[in-house]
Amino acid sequence: MNPxxxxxxxxxxxxxxxxxxxxxxVCLISLVALATASAQTPPHKRYRxxxxxxxxxxPAPPRKIETLPRMISRFGPFTSFQVNVDANGNNIVGDAxxxxxxxxxPTDGSxxxxxxxxxDSVLSNFRQAGYGYTTDGGPTWTFPGVLENNVFRSDPxxxxxxxxxxxYLSLRExxxxxMWGSLDGGQSWTRLTFGDVTGGDKQWFTIDKTGGIGxxxxxxxxSSTRLGALAATIGAGGNSAVPPTAxxxx
Length: 250
Fold this sequence. Notes:
The chain is mainly beta. The protein contains 1 helix and 17 strands.
């Protein structure tokens, strides 16, 4: 007969109550560790309080203008034609443009106006309110220049009323907006608002064409909470505007 097997230092058998206590203790340690880790997590960054659009670089100095053939891009049945071109329809080497906004004459679809942030040189982030127009539906464009030479502007927004007048909302360095109007299809622009017309960064507007009590009104809003929602009424013929009235916070 084999001798009985002896087990040295047997593992203790925990009762149900002891297992429960150990589990609770482990959970407690986990919670403490979680709380410590949470306390070490950096706080959320606050929203920026300074304008996102601000003057950094001065206007680009005069330079010799060189040109290349304009860009024509095709995608399936669609063809895109470069807008910021010289008087001969060529690409201007070394300048740049972004954030375009386009408006179409509802009475004549071949007439369109477009605005963008114009950078006269890629070596300077000084931006201006560039604009262009077409009378043949887009294959050819004319780029007369900017709303105001050497004036910092950004965030262009364009729209048209039901008679084919064009409007251009532009953000100034002061974080206020200007409304401009064109009666000749975007070939020339006249400033309609003066003084500090509140609007704000990433502003937008639309003209009421419903025929209701707000017909002809341009509802304007800015993304900054300190600026809120606004409304400006455009006069007949697109040659006047009244100061906007404050609305609900944006």
